[in-house]
Hints:
Elements: H1 5-20, H2 26-44, H3 48-61, H4 65-77, H5 81-94, H6 101-116, E1 122-127, E2 134-137, E3 150-153, E4 156-163, E5 169-176, E6 181-185, H7 204-244, H8 253-296, E7 302-308, E8 311-317
Amino acid sequence: MLRPLGxxxxxxxxxLVGAAQTPVDGATKAExxxxxxxxxxxxxDKQFKxxxxxxxxxxxxxxxxxxxxxLARAAELVGDPKTAIGHYRAYLAGYPQARxxxxxxxxxxxxxxxxxxxxxxxxxxxxxxxxxxxLKIDGATPPAPHQDGxxxxxxxxxxxxxxxATGLTSTWAFDLAAGETVSRDLTNLFTETTAPRDDRRxxxxxxxxxxxxxxxxxxGGGIFYQVDAFxxxxxxxxxKKQSQLNKPVPNSEAFVKRKLFDLEDNTNxxxxxxxxxxxxxxxxxxxxxxxxxxxxxxxxxxxxxxxVPGGLGVVGQF
Length: 318
């Protein structure tokens, strides 16, 4: 590194070098000198960025190559080797008689070596990856990690996805800067408390209660028609027995036959309706109860109602 005497050297030489440049008026020169002095004070206080701004303002008013040296030193000390190299080279080009040329050229070589080592990649450190889980970065399997276990990536935005052995998925995004290491611990990623509920079971409760409701309504209809069928059958049997015993009847024989026909027809219809409603009730209650059980289960399942020979059936994976 160059000795801090470079600032003092610049202070001594600035009037001499400034005289070799395009002449500037006295007021401008005085303003540039004041800015320069402010920069020296800030530099000594290790406020290198602020000092650089003062040196640049002074150079804009009175473009002395010596100020380029000071700008280079300030850039070097704020960690900007590329800018420092540019100022050093401009300093040597504008001040070829510089006594410290050899030192400056050597410092340029040092800074170029440093610049070549500036980080151009970042790293991701992943620990606790669950057994059997797979990791992908930006949708692809990442390259093998280095010996320190870190994955080397280019700077920028990335998306990591982990899929467990049972199919659970976790995704997160992160920004990676050059030279930065992003760490992520996946030990508790797929614990039971954080595992999401399977979306396929969410509608089971609703349709379960719908099935139960339909079943109860159909059961009421089946009972009603069954009672009506029993009543019609009893009346039919009583009237037929009365006619067979030749007991007096309120009306003629034709009326009796007509009445018996109506009662028999009513009995058959009510019996048919009762069976239909009771069948629907059985399917509705069975399906509803099954779906409610599945809704309370922790195991993902599917179920459906199908037409089968002789009626309806429930099939699924439980």
